[in-house]
Each structure stands twice: as structure tokens, then as C-alpha cells.
């Protein structure tokens, strides 16, 4: 959390960068995040031309292709408003890797640096910019929180999700073993090393289930896609003897818990 | 061109990326406090005891008595000592009459290597100084008190003057000016030999001494 | 040509080996348990996040400062070692290093070499070279001894036998060590090793060791260890040969304490190792023990390639603590042998391509989820994930002139490259993206139920029937 962010006033307008995964696979999570922000009296702008941050190509060793895609995103946020991203991983790409990606292109590098300071991961924005304190309107519930590696290590926002859930009176947050360990997604890693990725998500699901939590929440849909995809597969394999808990983006959970 | 020339040529052809000299001194100033002699002694003691060493507080008058007690308790009848040192001499003079065979390390190892490896149950050396932060003994083996004394016998007994305990390793080398010259072998010893190589289970006496005994002079209450 | 060079594709079969471990619940549990143990011990050594962070920064600065002066420091080291009576040798390749060591052995008509733990000696496959020359090279680190007795290789750079249970070791000793009955008591097993190796230290002609740091200003070789076998290897035999990579030199003695502290705390969670052995010369006149000859072999083996590139040079900051392995979710799942390289885990992935060429290690860099745990714990702040991305780029990009690395383009595939180009064409164009994702949302139900590797342990991916942008439009 930067000093600049801590002292920034509550903005009237923000941009929302949904990420390609949310746009295509978890649109409900994006809508819930936007609804929640609007309920706080913020005008949320969704640049229609947004696509993807470029991270899949970047981490796969194709920086030229990543740069082409990132170049488009650089142009989408002309006003000096915060850019809220419902993913630590994509936010990390835009905040920390864009300046490196454009290191040899002075004009775009300057743009990337100017954008970088305006990038906020969704839970970080709620806690540290809005100072949002949720009022819990739901019943007793135990959840377990999975934080993505990028949120934890790149964005350093692993505490904000926990803080938000902690503010919900009737929600108990279960503690899983090996909390900080990767779920095994890693973008193309899951395709290139399916055995290792499979072992990682298998262990992750076991840890999450062992808590007995009713629900898995995460601020990253990439991890959810992996964990929930494996959970559904496992349930099918085992004939749903001990069905895995459902999971959702933290925005959806927070919105539901705080809605009248 | 020799391998040396080729390696150096490749290194010299690489981009020069000079970096500022790291400020080791100020890290230690900020992160390690200067403790009192008593605090240093107790920190040293608790650290090295945690590493499985036995520590006894003695005085310059009582250490031989304690040494005898330690040897008796361990049923050790033979002690390797350094006859060229005052403490080695004292041990020979005072322990021999009470039934401890004090063998002097007075010949090159080649003359008695087999005996050293098979027939020496314990040794006595001094420590040059010690480090409180990590519970570490500093030894500078020399012609009188050679290297293998602190390594081959299964029990190593060390005489340490409590007033020579420093706060940190960094402080030792700075105060003693180690950069100006080191002996052929300088050693930091922080407990008896150990290993966790089998199923991360700790076992003592891997190759070096199984037991390390420190006679801490001057710290007796 | 030595056997070393014939071992051309060490990472070939990586996936198959990884699969074997992943599907072995016993091994899985055993690695997990051991890594958890080391993670917990390390964490206990760094109670203050501020101290950890500032010390890591200091460690990084020390390593970068010294690498910045590397050629000059190597010369200073050489000068001072020679002044101290230590003979210095330079080797560009493993073959050269082996030839130097065997030459020294031959000059002394050596029959038995006892070895302290040295990963560089594994790197050059010295044991093979010795065997071929009729010299018995005996590992003396307990873990290395066990691994050698089993005819295997280390699976971890700090804990070489971490993959073996005490029962397996008990059977191994019972089978291979004359006169030893089966016992799975760890203390007894260690005492058996002690007894066997003591006899070897007594009669060995040569002691071989690695080096953790070489101090240029004093001409000193520093060794970190717990067992005492390193001290015995460097003290008991008449000749001591040390071998190290050229990157291990530091200019000043004052650089040693912070690195030592970072090393032992990160590696095994000890505030200091049992022994820190500083060797500044052979036996002097009047001294009664210690080797009468001390040699240092400085090995390049691809390190100069890493050195030539500003980013890749950071690889050489490594102090070989193994913390990146202990914290790596991939290493934890597959152990060290699956990698097929001397150095496994995250550090192995970034150093091996320099030692062996990208052509031999092309698929290593892909075996990372980029979780960043390695970079987070590295005591000298090597940006391992960043280097992995660079290696992926070097491997997958089309071969070009003046590559930064041997084997650049080894992983190049026209098909994969065109897939990414196609991907970029869609995602850089709002119009194309609009069409493609709209089609996906309308026809997502038609996505195949088998989606290659993804569906091996997951249900198929299907786009939602409406995209977020559609939902927003509908909402108005």
C-alpha cells in the first residue's frame, strides 16, 4: 500500500478493468464488484475496448505478444482516476510489469509508470482507499479464503481480503494449512506440467476442504477456475460422496453479505 | 591461451556494473546491541547449550577441579592436551596425579595418526574468544594446539575466558583486526558435531566430537 | 569425451519422472514433511520481518558488489592464496577441472580421496572421473555417503538423502556395509557411518572439499558444515583440494558474517552452523597437522555466460542455501531427482541452462507456476521468477544471431509461436476480441469436454453465456 494511496481522497470516478477471465468466465463476479463500488457512491467506468492485461504471454516467455496486448490497455484510462482490478494477478501485471515491459519505449514507459500508480487490486481499494467497513447482514457462515500468489507476493495485499472478511460479524474465516502455497494454476503451467499442477491443486483442495468451511472465497478468478474446476472433477470422480464446498469471488460474497 | 586467461577475458568483456560498497558496519550497529559482559556470557551460554554443549562456570582457580569432575563423570581416563600452553601444562601437572593420563600433542600427526583416531577419548584446548549472538567458540589452532585436537577426539573440552566474549562475529573480526592476517586455520565452533541427514532427525557425533564441554572462566557467581 | 558430456539431455524425461513421484503418495508425504520442517525452522530464525528484509538487502548488495568486481577479485584472491602457499588452478570446463584434480592425485600416487560435501564436484561428476582413473572417491557427508552407497545422486543440495527413509537406509547399510545388522535407529545409523568413514579419514591420500566463500583480501577459503567431515577432509589427509565456482569470491572478510548468517538461517534454520572453517594456508613449519599442500580449483563451466548479461548475472548471487527448494511447491511435489540436473529446484532451473545449455534444459523453465515463493525467501534477493521468464523467452524465441545463451531458441516452435501471435492479434484488437468472446459466450456449451491437460484433473472450461460487457449493457 503506497503512501499516496493511503492519503488519497475517496474518488468520485474509477475505471474498472475486469480482466479477460472475469469478462468471459466469471462475469457475475465483475458485476458484483461494480455493483458494490457503485453502492458506495462511486461512478464506475468500464472502458469497452479492454481485453486482457497481457500476462499469459508475458509469463510464458512471449513478451513481444504481451506488449502488443498491453499497448492497447495503456490507452484505455485517459483520466486520472484509479483503475480497480478484481484480480491480484492482473493488477500485478499492470502495476509492476508494464513499466518493465515498455523499458525500451520511453513514451509508453512513461504511460505505463503513470498508470502503475493508479492500479488497485479490488480488496486493497475497498480497505485502503475507501476505508470500507462491511455491515454483515447474513447468517452464521464459515468460509475459507484463498489468496493468489500475485496478490500475496507481488501486490502485497494478502491482508486486505482477510480484513474484509474479518469485518463480517457472523462470518468465521477458517484457517487452512499451507495457506500461502500456490494452488497450481500458473496460467500455461497448468497445461505444460499437468501432473505437477494437478498435484498442487489436489493438495490445495484437500487443505481447503479439511477446514470444514462451507465456502471458498478468493479475489482471483484464475485460482478459482483451477480450484473449483478440480473440485467439480473430484466430486464427479468420487460420485460426490463428500461434495466440495462451492466457491466464488470475494466481491460476490461481500455484496451478498452486505445487501439488504 | 590458458583457461585462466580465457575465463578472465570473458569476465573482462562483460559489461561493467559497479555497485556501491555495502555498509556492513551500519547494519550491525542498527541491529545488534552492545551487551554487558554478563549479558554476553549468558547469551553465549544459552545459545551453545541449545546446540547441545555442556557449559560449566568456573574460576581460574577451580577449572581443573571441574575438568576432573567432568572427566570422572564421563569415565574418561585419558586426555589429549597441548603441553606448550599454560593450561595444557597445568593439566599435566595437576590431573596426572589424580589418575588422568594426560597425553601431550607433541609430535607431528603422521607419527601417531592411528592412535589419534582410535585411542584418544577426549581433548582439552583453549578458545581464543567467543561470540554471544550465536553461542560460538573461536579457535585459532597453532603449532602448540593443533587443528585435530578440536576435531578427532569424541569429547572436546574447551577453556573459555568469559571476558573474551564478543557480541557478534563481525565485532570479533573488526576488534581483532582479522583482515590484517589470519592463521592457517581459524575455526568457529558452535556445538558438538551433528547431522540431520537421515529423515531430518537430529543426531550428534556425526564425524567430529560427540560432546562439547565449555569451562567458562570468570562467570561464577 | 567424458561421460559428463554424453549426458546430453538431463531434463529429458522430466515429466515422466515428475509423474512417478507425484503418483507416489509415500514420497509425496515424505518430501512435504521434510520441506515443512525446514520452512518452519527457517521462519523461527527470522522473527523480525524488518531484520530479515534489511539483511537480505545487505546480502544482495554484498553479492552484487563483489560480482561487479569479479575479475579483479579473482586476481586478488589468486595473489593472496599463492602468498599464503595455496596453489590456484583455473578450469573452464568440467573436463579441465577433473584433469587438474586427477593430475594432483597422480602426483601423490593417491588411491583414496575423501570428499566433504561439494556440489561443484557433483557438477563436474568428479566421482566418475576418479573411478575411471582408479581412485576411490568416497563421500563423507552422511547424506552424500548414503546416496553414494545407494548408487544415486543427491536430491537436495543441503539434504542429499532427503528422499530416503531411515528404513531404506537401514536396509542399505545392512546390505552394503560389511558386518552391519539391520537397525533403523537414526543414532545407530549415524554411528555406523562415523565408524566406517573414520577409517577412511585416517588413511585417505587426498581430501576434497567445496568452498562457501573465498575471501580475496586475506586469501581464505571458508567452509560451512555441521558434521565435521568437511574439517576432517580439509585437515586429516596430506593434501587438500578445494573446488569452487568463480562466483564465490568476496572482497572483504567483513562481507562474510552477513552472508554466513543468511546462509545458515535460510538453509537449515540454524543461527549458525556447528563449524565455520576458515582455511588460509597449508601446514606451516612447526605445525603438527593440517595438509602440507592446499589447492584451489576455480571453475567456470558456463558461469561467464551468465556473467555477461546484466539480468542473468543475478543468477550468480546464489549462496546455495536451498531455501528456494524448500519453499517451492513444485520441488515439494517432485523432489530433486526428477529435474535430472545437479542443482534441482528453482536455483537449478536458473543456473543449469548456463552449465548445460538451453538445448539440454529447455523444458525446465516451464516447470514453474511463477508463484514467487522462491524469490520471496531468497537470502540474496535473486529475482528467480523474473529470470525464469527470461529463460522462457530465450528458449521459445526464434534462434537469432549473437544469443545471450548457449541453446537460445532450443524451445522454439513455429506452431506455439503462431498460437501466441494469433492470441495477440485477437487481444490487441477490441473488435476481434469482441467477436471471438461473443462467439465463445454463445457457443461455449459446445466447447469440447476433453480439453487436453486441463481436463486431466479438472472439469472442462466453458465461457459464461453472457460476458460481463453484455451484462453491463443489459443492466443499462
Give an overview of the whole structure:
The complex is a heterotrimer of chains A (260), B (221) and C (476). With 260 residues, chain A is α/β, with parallel strands linked by helices. Chain A is 52% helix and 12% strand. In chain A, strand 7 (215-218), helix 13 (221-237) and strand 8 (247-249) form a beta-alpha-beta unit. In chain A, helix 3 (27-39) packs across helix 14 (250-258), helix 8 (122-129) crosses helix 10 and helix 12 crosses helix 13. The longest helix of chain A is centred in the last third of the chain and has 17 residues, at 194-210. Chain B is α/β, with parallel strands linked by helices and 221 residues long. Chain B has helices spanning 3-13, 24-31, 37-50, 63-73, 86-95, 113-119, 169-175, and strands at 54-58, 78-81, 101-104, 122-126, 129-131, 136-139, 155-161, 165-166, 185-189, 194-195, 203-204, 211-217. The longest helix of chain B has 14 residues, at 37-50. Residues 1-7 of chain C have low confidence and may be disordered. In chain C, helix 3 (25-45) runs antiparallel to helix 13 (256-268) and helix 17 runs parallel beside helix 20 (384-396). Chain C has 3 domains: 8-45 and 322-412, no CATH class; 46-304, Rossmann fold, CATH 3.40.50; 414-475, no CATH class. A 6-stranded parallel sheet of chain C has the order 1-10-7-4-2-3, with helices on both faces. In chain C, strands 8-5-6-9 form a 4-stranded mixed sheet, with helices on both faces. In chain C, 50% of the residues lie in helices and 10% in strands. Chain C has helices spanning 3-6, 14-22, 25-45, 49-68, 70-84, 94-107, 119-123, 126-132, 142-149, 166-176, 186-203, 229-235, 256-268, 303-307, 323-326, 329-334, 345-356, 358-361, 373-377, 384-396, 414-427, 430-443, 468-475, and strands at 86-91, 112-115, 136-139, 206-209, 213-215, 220-225, 239-245, 249-250, 275-279, 293-299. In chain C, a hairpin with a 4-residue loop joins strand 5 (213-215) and strand 6. The chains are: A alpha/beta (260), B alpha/beta (221), C alpha/beta (476). Chains in contact: A-C, B-C. Strand 9 (185-189) of chain B pairs antiparallel with strand 9 of chain C, so a sheet runs across the interface.
Amino acid at each position: 500500500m503506497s503512501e499516496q494511496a493511503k492519503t488519497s481522497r475517496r474518488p468520485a470516478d474509477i475505471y474498472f478493468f475486469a480482466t479477460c477471465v472475469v469478462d468471459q468466465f466469471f462475469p457475475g463476479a465483475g458485476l458484483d464488484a461494480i455493483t458494490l463500488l457503485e453502492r458506495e457512491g462511486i461512478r464506475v467506468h468500464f472502458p469497452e475496448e479492454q481485453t486482457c492485461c497481457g500476462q499469459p504471454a508475458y509469463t510464458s516467455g512471449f513478451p513481444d505478444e504481451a506488449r502488443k496486448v498491453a499497448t492497447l490497455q495503456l490507452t484505455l484510462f485517459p483520466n486520472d482516476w484509479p483503475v480497480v482490478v478484481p484480480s491480484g494477478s492482473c493488477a500485478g501485471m499492470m502495476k509492476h510489469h508494464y513499466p518493465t515491459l515498455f523499458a525500451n519505449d520511453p513514451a509508453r514507459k512513461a504511460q505505463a509508470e503513470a498508470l502503475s500508480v493508479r492500479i488497485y487490486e479490488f480488496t486493497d481499494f475497498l480497505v485502503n482507499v475507501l476505508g470500507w467497513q462491511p455491515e454483515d447482514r447474513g447468517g452464521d457462515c464459515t468460509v475459507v479464503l484463498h489468496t493468489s500468489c500475485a496478490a500475496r507476493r507481488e501486490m502485497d495485499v494478502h491482508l486486505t481480503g482477510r480484513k474484509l472478511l474479518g469485518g463480517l460479524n457472523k462470518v468465521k474465516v477458517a484457517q487452512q494449512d499451507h495457506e500461502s502455497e500456490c494452488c497450481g494454476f500458473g496460467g500455461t503451467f497448468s497445461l505444460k506440467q499437468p501432473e505437477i499442477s494437478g498435484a498442487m491443486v489436489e493438495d490445495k483442495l484437500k487443505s481447503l476442504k479439511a477446514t470444514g468451511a462451507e465456502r471458498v472465497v478468493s479475489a482471483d478468478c484464475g485460482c478459482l477456475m483451477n480450484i473449483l474446476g478440480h473440485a467439480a472433477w473430484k466430486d464427479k470422480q468420487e460420485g460426490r460422496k463428500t461434495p466440495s464446498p462451492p466457491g466464488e469471488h470475494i466481491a460476490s460474497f461481500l455484496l451478498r453479505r452486505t445487501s439488504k | 591461451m590458458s583457461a585462466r586467461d580465457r575465463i578472465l577475458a570473458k569476465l573482462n568483456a562483460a559489461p561493467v556494473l559497479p555497485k556501491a560498497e555495502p555498509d556492513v558496519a551500519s547494519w550491525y550497529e542498527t541491529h545488534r546491541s552492545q551487551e554487558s559482559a554478563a549479558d554476553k556470557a549468558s547469551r553465549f551460554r544459552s545459545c551453545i547449550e541449545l546446540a547441545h554443549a555442556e557449559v560449566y562456570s568456573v574460576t581460574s582457580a577451580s577449572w581443573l577441579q571441574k575438568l576432573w569432575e567432568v572427566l570422572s563423570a564421563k569415565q574418561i581416563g585419558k586426555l589429549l592436551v597441548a603441553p606448550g600452553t599454560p593450561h595444557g601444562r597445568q593439566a599435566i601437572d595437576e590431573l596426572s596425579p589424580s589418575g588422568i593420563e594426560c597425553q601431550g600433542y607433541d609430535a607431528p600427526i603422521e607419527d601417531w595418526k592411528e592412535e589419534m583416531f582410535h585411542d584418544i577419548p577426549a581433548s582439552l584446548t583453549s578458545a581464543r574468544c567467543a561470540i554471544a549472538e550465536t553461542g560460538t567458540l573461536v579457535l585459532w589452532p597453532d603449532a602448540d594446539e593443533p587443528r585435530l585436537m578440536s576435531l578427532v577426539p569424541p569429547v572436546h573440552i574447551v577453556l573459555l575466558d568469559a571476558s573474551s566474549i564478543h557480541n557478534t562475529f563481525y565485532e570479533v573480526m573488526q576488534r581483532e583486526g582479522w583482515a590484517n592476517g589470519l592463521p592457517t586455520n581459524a575455526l568457529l565452533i558452535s556445538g558438538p558435531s551433528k547431522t540431520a541427514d537421515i529423515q531430518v532427525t537430529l543426531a550428534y557425533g556425526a564425524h567430529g566430537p560427540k560432546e562439547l564441554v565449555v569451562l567458562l572462566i570468570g562467570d561464577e557467581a | 569425451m567424458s561421460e559428463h558430456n554424453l549426458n546430453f539431455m538431463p531434463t529429458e524425461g522430466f515429466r515422466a519422472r515428475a509423474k512417478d513421484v507425484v503418483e507416489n503418495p509415500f514420497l509425496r508425504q515424505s518430501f512435504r514433511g521434510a520441506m515443512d520442517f525446514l520452512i518452519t525452522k527457517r521462519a523461527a530464525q527470522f522473527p523480525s520481518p524488518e531484520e530479515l528484509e534489511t539483511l537480505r538487502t545487505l546480502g544482495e548488495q554484498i553479492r552484487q558488489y563483489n560480482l561487479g568486481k569479479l575479475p579483479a577479485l579473482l586476481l586478488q584472491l589468486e595473489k593472496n592464496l599463492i602468498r599464503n602457499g595455496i596453489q590456484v588452478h583455473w578450469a573452464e570446463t568440467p573436463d579441465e577441472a577433473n584433469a587438474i584434480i586427477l593430475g594432483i592425485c597422480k602426483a601423490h600416487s593417491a588411491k583414496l580421496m575423501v570428499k566433504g560435501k561439494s556440489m561443484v564436484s557433483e557438477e563436474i561428476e568428479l566421482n566418475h572421473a576418479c573411478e575411471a582413473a582408479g581412485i576411490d572417491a568416497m563421500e563423507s557427508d552422511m547424506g552424500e555417503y548414503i546416496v553414494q552407497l545407494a548408487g544415486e545422486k543427491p536430491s537436495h543440495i543441503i539434504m542429499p538423502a532427503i528422499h530416503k527413509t531411515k528404513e531404506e537406509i537401514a536396509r542399505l547399510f545392512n546390505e552394503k556395509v560389511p558386518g552391519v545388522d539391520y537397525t533403523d535407529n537414526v543414532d545407530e545409523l549415524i554411528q555406523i557411518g562415523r565408524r566406517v568413514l573414520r577409517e577412511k579419514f585416517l588413511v585417505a591420500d587426498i581430501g576434497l572439499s567445496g568452498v562457501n566463500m573465498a575471501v580475496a583480501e586475506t586469501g581464505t577459503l571458508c567452509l560451512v558444515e555441521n558434521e565435521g567431515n568437511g574439517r576432517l577432509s580439509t585437515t586429516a589427509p596430506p593434501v587438500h583440494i578445494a573446488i569452487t565456482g568463480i562466483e564465490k569470491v568476496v572482497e572483504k572478510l567483513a562481507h562474510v558474517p552477513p552472508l554466513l548468517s543468511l546462509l545458515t538461517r535460510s538453509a537449515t534454520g540454524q543461527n549458525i552452523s556447528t563449524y565455520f572453517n576458515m582455511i588460509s594456508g597449508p601446514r606451516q613449519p612447526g605445525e603438527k597437522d593440517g595438509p602440507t599442500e592446499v589447492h584451489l580449483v576455480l571453475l567456470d563451466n558456463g558461469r561467464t555466460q551468465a556473467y555477461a548479461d546484466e539480468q542473468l548475472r543475478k543468477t550468480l548471487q546464489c549462496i546455495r542455501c536451498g531455501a528456494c527448494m524448500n519453499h517451492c511447491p513444485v520441488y515439494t511435489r517432485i523432489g530433486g531427482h526428477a529435474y535430472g540436473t545437479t542443482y534441482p529446484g528453482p536455483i537449478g532451473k536458473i543456473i543449469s541452462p548456463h552449465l548445460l545449455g538451453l538445448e539440454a534444459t529447455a523444458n525446465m523453465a516451464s516447470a514453474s507456476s511463477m508463484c514467487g515463493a522462491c524469490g520471496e525467501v531468497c537470502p540474496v534477493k535473486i529475482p528467480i521468477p523474473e529470470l525464469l521468464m527470461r529463460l522462457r523467452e530465450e528458449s521459445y524465441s526464434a534462434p537469432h544471431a549473437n544469443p545471450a545463451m548457449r541453446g537460445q531458441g532450443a524451445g522454439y516452435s513455429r506452431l506455439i509461436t503462431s498460437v501466441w501471435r494469433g492470441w495477440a492479434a485477437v487481444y490487441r484488437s477490441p473488435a476481434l476480441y469482441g467477436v471471438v468472446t461473443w462467439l465463445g459466450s454463445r457457443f461455449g456449451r459446445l466447447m469440447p469436454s476433453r480439453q487436453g491437460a486441463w481436463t486431466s484433473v479438472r472439469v472442462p472450461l466453458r465461457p459464461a453465456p453472457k460476458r460481463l460487457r453484455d451484462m453491463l449493457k443489459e443492466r443499462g
